Amino acid sequence: MNEAELIRACIKNDRKAQNELFRLYKDSLFLISLKYCRNTADAEDNLHDSFLTIFQKIKNFKGNGSFEGWMKRITIYKAIDKYKGGKNSPLEINEGILEGDLNVDTGINLKLDTLLKIIQELPDQYRLVFNLYQMDGYSHKQTSKILNISENTSKSNYHRAKIILRKKIMEAMKTEDFKTEHNEK
Amino acid sequence: MKNKKDIGLFLKEKLDAAQKTPNDDLWGKINDSLNKKEKKKRKVSPIWFLLPIAFSSILGIIFYTVLSNPQGPRIKNTNPIQIDTTHKISQGKGSHSKSNSATEKNIFIKDSLGEITNGFTTINEDNDRRKPKKGNENNDHSPKNRSRLSGNKAEKLIKSISKRKNPNGKIDKTIANVERESGNSTSKGKSKNKISHVKTDSLHKKDLEKRDSTRVAKTQNNKKRIKETTQKDSTKTEQESRGKWAVMVVGGPTYFDISKKYSLIDNSLNGRKTFGEFSFSYGLGVSVPISENLSISFAVLRTKMAYSVKNIPSSTQQDFSRILSYSAISDENLVTEQEFSEFNGTGTSLTLMHEIEYIEMPLQLSYSFVQGKFGVHGFVGFSTLLLQNNVIFAENSRGGRLKLGSANDLLKINLSINAGLGAHYNLSERIRIEINPTFKYHFFISDNQNRNTSGFLLGVYGGIKYNFNLK
Predict the structure, then answer these.
(1) Cα dist. B204→A16, A184, B90, B301, B410 in Å?
(2) What's the whole-model pTM score?
(3) B327 contacts in A (CB within 8 Å)?
(4) Which of B217, B328, B348, B421 has its CA 20 to 30 A from that of A54?
(5) What is the Cα–Cα distance from B326 to A56, expressed in whole angstroms?
(6) pLDDT value at residue B359
(7) Cβ atoms of B141 and B192 closer than 8 Å
(8) Separation CA B403–CA B339 (nearest Å)
(9) Does the distance separating the beta carbons of A145 and B2 come in below 8 Å?
């Protein structure tokens, strides 16, 4: 069954087709959810809600643009709706480090779960801004409108998010190096 | 020297290449949710069907009870025996007619069972103000010229009535009154009023028979007239008691708003300020009296309610897809992002407007505090609302509207409690104008547990009531 046939079957509420669609896209959409949500449980909830909306709205998909892109947008917006305007206050950041180096060694080899955890631990707004701008290619202007914040806030949040991420990656490196050395001994 | 990379790019590269699989149970959960949604669409709680049926039944019983009793439940026969005395002047011919300057007193007796009996007594009244003007008046008080056939009948009738059982003794009393009245008139005019027997001699037999037949005809006419009078009286009594039955034409502006805690459109709009909108409600109703001050009314109204959520960002493609993905906007929505973009133009924000239309059936108890030409009344009750239509529009900065779809989880039937204080003015016996400012609180507008919300409606209903004889 090709994509068009699958969509038509899903519009008819064919449960097998819906299952097939889920099977095809669950991983990529789950990864998006993991990046935007605070933890794995939230990410699974978000994926659940996203698929329900996708099946409900699939009639609206007119074939303009990629179907996967359409599904990704739904997943992103579901996650944003979950956290936008949340009371998770941004971390206190020492202003002194704002001008610091934001580069990391390309050779850093952290586990995927560790990297995801570092992103998930970002304050909600920083995480949303970082993901929208950095991971999904939205401009600061677009990001600011989606999150109902100013463009400058978006830029500032993005910058601060990167500082926090670098700091956390460094800390994680030390922990993982320590664990590796400890295991080797 | 190690290669360096921006932390953002570094993470993007790492995560783009990654793959993560969700828990195996997830499809099961999604499947369950899809099944539940389908069931919800099919299933409406039976209580919501039973409720309007119960209301209709109660109303039907009230109607039936009142209509099936033509006297009306509140008519009291406080005067079971009615005596109508009508003076008549009998005119005759020949020797008998000459002596017939008598006044007949027709006695119509209506007993407690509603039977009408009549009889005639012929009573001589010398001082009767309605004496015949002709010169053949005869003031002879001899038994010959006194009451004749009718007197005989009346005597028999009185005797028969006297024999009747009457626990109240009213008939006897009434007859006594009649006799007393006759006696009085005699004493006043110094003439004797007696009930006499008729002499039946052969010479007058023919004449008497003729007179009899005339009297019978008159009696029948009188009976007919009395029957009509009685019917008129009865109808009047019914009208008096049921005159408050009224049909109403109702209409008025309404203002509706919902609680902002939960949005009916999407969870992302929870807590966002909503703005009430003015609409119009109209319909027909009936009002039935229960007691002097209390009445019950039932109406069928077409009620439109609307509210809006303002300043929804709408400048990017993402905004469009975000709005179109609002969870309450149902499957019927066929607007594409392209169409939405064209509609939005260069606008940066738009307003979402939600219009909900119900057939509303208010059942209300009304109590009159002040009655008269001008009156004041209070009322309480509840409305059953049957969902007819609900539409979510986007409204752009130019005032243009685009239908996005409809909320898919509104309850098909919901309830409101109503209360208000009204005033009325009686233009005539039958026509009354009313104004009824009403507050209505709506429970559970949505059947979605996560999005359930309440609302309120303020209406200023004006109406014209027409008292209607339902006979």
Answers:
(1) 113, 154, 17, 77, 93
(2) 0.44
(3) 53, 56
(4) B348
(5) 11
(6) 92
(7) yes
(8) 11
(9) no
Which residues lie below 8 Å from residue B426, measured CB to CB, with a gap of 6+?
B372, B373, B374, B375, B432
- Residue B257 is encoded by which pair of tokens? 């708003």
For every one of its 185 residues, what pLDDT tens digit does chain A have, with 9 covering 90 and above? 788 888 989 988 899 999 999 999 999 999 999 999 999 999 999 999 999 999 988 887 877 788 999 899 999 998 998 887 655 545 445 545 555 677 777 777 888 899 999 999 999 999 999 999 999 999 999 898 888 889 999 999 999 999 999 888 888 888 766 565 556 55
Check CB contact under 8 Å for B10 and A70. Answer: no
Using a CB-CB cut-off of 8 Å, the residues of chain A touching B2 are 105-107
Element (H, E) at A129: helix A124-130
Number of A to B CB contacts under 8 A, please give it.
150
What DSSP letter does each residue of B114-147 carry, written as one string?
--EEEEEEEE--TT-TT---STT-----SGGGS-
Query: How many helices (DSSP H) and strands (DSSP E) are in chain B?
Result: 9, 13
Question: What number is the ipTM of this complex?
Answer: 0.87
> Residues B417, B422, B427, B430: is their CA dihedral positive or negative?
positive
First to last CA, chain A: 53
Please tell me the distance in Å from A183's CA to the nearest CA on chain B. 25
* A13 part of contact set with chain B, CB < 8 Å: yes
Write the pLDDT tens digit of every residue in B60-107. 666 566 555 544 444 444 444 444 444 444 444 444 444 444 434 444
Answer whether B141's CB lies under 8 Å from B123's CB: no
Asked if residues B41 and B409 have their Cβ atoms less than 8 Å apart, the reply is: no
pLDDT higher for B2 or A129? Answer: A129
CA-to-CA distance for A85 and A82, rounded, in angstroms? 9
Rounded CA-CA distance A150/A157 in Å is 10
Map residue B329 onto helix, strand or coil. Answer: strand
Contact B348, B313 (CB under 8 A): yes
Residue among B179, B115, B110 at smallest CA distance from B151: B179
Among candidates A30, A59, A148 on the partner chain, residue whose Cβ is nearest the Cβ of B313 = A148
B267 → chain A, closest CA residue? A81
Q: What are phi and psi of B325, to 5 degrees?
A: -95, 5
| CA B72 to chain centroid | 15
C-beta atoms of A22 and B34 within 8 A: no
Burial of B3 (0-12, 13-18, 19+ CB in 10 A): exposed
CB contact under 8 A, A81 and B334: no
SS3 B245: coil
Tracing tokens 């999604």 back to the chain, one arrives at B30
Rounded-to-integer distance, Cα B352 and Cα B335, Å: 14
Please report, as a single letter, which amino acid is at residue A98.
L
The pLDDT assigned to A27 comes to 93
Residues 6+ apart with CB under 8 A from B450: B262, B267
Residues of A in Cβ contact (< 8 Å) with B18: 31, 112
